[in-house]
Amino acid sequence: MIDEAVRDEGTSLHYLPPSKTVVTPTPRLADLLAQELIGLPSPVSRGVVWTTDAPYRETPTQLQSWAEKGVLAVEMQAASLFAFARARGAQVGMVALVSNDVDQGTAEFDTGGHEFRARVLTAVARAARKFFLAQPETPRVR
Question: pTM (2 decimals)?
Answer without folding.
Answer: 0.86
